[in-house]
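Holo prediction. Input below; ligand is FE2/S2 (inorganic) cluster.
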Amino acid sequence: MSSRSITVTINGEAVTREVEDRTLLVHFVREDAALTGTHIGCDTTSCGACTVLLEGVAVKSCTAFAVQAHGKSVETIEGMADADGTLHPLQEGFWEKHGLQCGYCTPGMIMSAKHLLEKNPNPTEEEIRWGISGNLCRCTGYNKIVEAIQYAAEKINSQSAENVGRNEDEAAAQQEVTP
Ligand code: FES
Ligand code: FES
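Structure of the complex:
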């Protein structure tokens, strides 16, 4: 079985390992990088529990080879919260809106939702449902997940508006002190 050394930047940290060509990305993430927040539900590209972001794009990591991620960046659920533990608005939304029960689908759901909100910061309910259509949940009935993503979209947009306002205030203050 042929193998090779690959380096994948996962949540900002380079992970270099010798892998067999057949190694799936999900096994690289879970076993080589020891990041078990990414789940395996079906191993057949159906459930979405294994979803990660590869170069910012949501992919089912049971359907990609680890070698395809060589030299690229991967983001997993472990990379969502800030270093100080502050939850990402999507994580907060799932908490606040009770968007999970057993939680098995949740990491993959959140990664798909992150991709969705980065492409479309103001999705309609229909667009949210379409955006997570590759992720199956056996518990929630999806309504609470949709509400969680709507919560996150609102929070991200209000944070962006606050940042724009702060930058404008700082620029105006700078002009006042500049003769
Ligand atoms: S484990 Fe990858 S889609 Fe189900
Ligand atoms: S919360 Fe149980 S599968 Fe979604």
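The first helix runs from residue 25 to 32. That is the main takeaway for now.
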